[in-house]
Amino acid sequence: MRLAQIRLAKGDTDEGIRELETLSVADPDKQQPDVALVMAHLRARRFTEALAAADVLIGKQPKSPVGYAIKGAVQAAKGDAKSARELFEKALTFDAAYVPALMSLGSLDVRARNYADAKRRFEQVLVKDPKSERALLALAQVLALEKAPDADIVAALQRAIAANPESVPARLSLVNFHASRKNWGSALTTAQQADAAIPGNPAVVEALANVQLAAGEKNQAIENYARQAKLQPSNPTPRMRLAAVYASSQNYDEAITSLKAAMTVAPTNTAIWSALAAVYVQAGRVDQGLAEARRLQKDLTTRAAGYALEAELFAAQKKFGDAVASYRAILARDPQPYAVLRLHALLEAAGKPEEATSVAQKWVKDHPKDGIVSGYLANLSLMKGDYKSAAAQYRGIVEKDPSNVGALNNLAWSLSELKDPQALATRPKAGKNVKSTGLPMDAALAAAVALINRQTRSDAPQPMSRRAALRMALRRR
Predict the structure, then answer these.
(1) Cα(347)–Cα(352) distance, rounded to whole angstroms?
(2) Residue 412 and residue 213: Cα distance in Å, rounded?
(3) Which of 190, 299, 336, 473 is the most buried (most CB within 10 A)?
(4) Contact assessment for residue 107 and residue 444, using Cβ atoms and an 8 Å cutoff
(5) Please, are residues 121 and 102 in contact by the beta-carbon 8 Å criterion?
């Protein structure tokens, strides 16, 4: 079992699955290999294989709720809520208090806006496990969806915290709720209490810094973003936020230092290059920025970042021709999708859409296995309302990866806008929400599958913005 887990963790899905299949046959009395096998197929979006593996588990232990619940999770991931619900209900016939099935049914009830039944399911979970973090937070979510009084929602979240004082999700949910109401005093108090209860947690420190910044406590926010950066030395985000705070105070030296540190951590992060270029321009130090860019270009390890910084400095000054030349230099030295995407955007900004399209299409032709640029182009077509091009592009993506739910959803949407009858045939594969670009399994269902896995382990105690288009394309990387 351990060898299979190692292979899967390393991304060797096929070998990991073969190991699990061998274990399933070798020890028919154990559930763990079969559950892990379903999970492996599900993560790879191989729904047919996942369902078959779940059927094997059911065949081995037909009176256990586990197989039915995990098969229900697969059906839910496919978008077949009716079959999923039937399977979860079947699981409960063998164990009326089986938590994964109750949580999953509650999630389906929430999707169907059947909030009364959802609350009933979650309360059933709490009868068995009064401290269930997921059930308590799910109840609070239902209250929010019902537009219950704020005091009731706060009370529900406080109940979750009282049951689990060291729960990061519970405490951050309360912080975020107060922040959503712009109740900065309560948000700040709650974040400080979370930091005291769970010291040194990066997510809590980040939330505290965010709230402090929103509340006007800029110096304290700087202090906590710096704390987060120390807690997460490989995460560029806190350094980028530090830079933004410094730049807003016209402390450009510290802003530049922070962004250089972020670039060291994530040298191919285009947002860092853009931010650094913006600070140099804002500070009136373009020449200094160009000098830094050319210094970086001399070092093999930072060469791409140097050309990118140079390009972004030109772009910030609307010198798109020079920016395009710099990104072409990057592509010649280090051909990567991010450079194609920025070159495409800059060519469009320069008023050369045909050349932009040509660059991207050549990349797709030369790199057929890369889905980032093709996904980006398809999403842009959808955003522009060019449904004919979007449909053709999504169809190409689906042909290469039939399990790409996001592409299937958007293909169905594009075809429906074209009044193409094929939309009806495409939509069921993607589920009812044809505009969804999220992962196929929501958080509650994912948590339920994870709980099944833990309980059976042997060691167990509408159209998008350009940024959204890029984000969705990168998700498939």
Answers:
(1) 5
(2) 42
(3) 190
(4) yes
(5) yes
In contact, 372 and 477? CB cutoff 8 Å: yes
By residue count, the chain amounts to: 477
Angle of CA points 322, 326, 332, to nearest 5°: 140
Backbone angles phi, psi at 331, to 5 degrees: -60, -35
Give the dihedral sign, CA 134/87/33/46.
negative
Query: Confidence band (pLDDT; 50, 70, 90) for 262?
Result: very high
Residue 181: name the closest of 159, 154, 218 by CA.
154
63 in helix, strand or coil?
coil
* Domain coordinates in residue numbering, the chain: 1-129+447-461
The mean predicted confidence, pLDDT, of the chain is 83
SS3 at position 30: coil
Average pLDDT score over residue span 365-376 = 88
Count of helix runs (H) and strand runs (E) in the chain: 28, 0
Question: Could you tell me the pTM of the whole model?
Answer: 0.73
Burial 180-212 (b: 16+ CB within 10 A, else e): eeeebebbbebbbbbbeebeebbbbbbbbbbbb
CB 24 within 8 A of CB 56: yes
Contact predicate 315/350, CB 8 Å:
no
First and final CA of the chain: distance in angstroms? 27
Residue 366 CB neighbours (<10 A): 9
At residue 164, what are phi and psi to the nearest 5 degrees? Answer: -140, 75
What CATH number labels 1-129+447-461?
A: 1.25.40.10
Q: Which of 14, 20, 86 is nearest to 53 (CA)?
A: 20
CA separation for the pair 435, 444 (Å, rounded): 20
477 vs 473: CA distance, rounded Å: 7
CA-wise closest residue to 210 among 253, 168, 180, 252? 180
Q: In this structure, are residues 412 and 376 in contact, taking their beta carbons and an 8 Å threshold?
A: no
The least confident of 19-23, 320-324, 385-389 is 19-23
Q: What is the 3-state secondary structure (H, E, C) of 318-370?
A: CCHHHHHHHHHHHHHHCCCHHHHHHHHHHHHHCCCHHHHHHHHHHHHHHCCCC
Q: What is the pLDDT of residues 91-150, one digit of tens each?
A: 999 999 899 999 999 999 998 999 999 999 999 999 999 999 999 999 999 999 999 999
- pLDDT at res. 439: 29
Distance set, CA 160 to CA 54, 146, 155, 446 (Å): 33, 18, 9, 20
Q: How confident is the model at residue 4 (pLDDT cuts 50, 70, 90)?
A: low
Average pLDDT of 322-329? 91
Angle at 406 between CA 274 and CA 368, to 5 degrees: 70
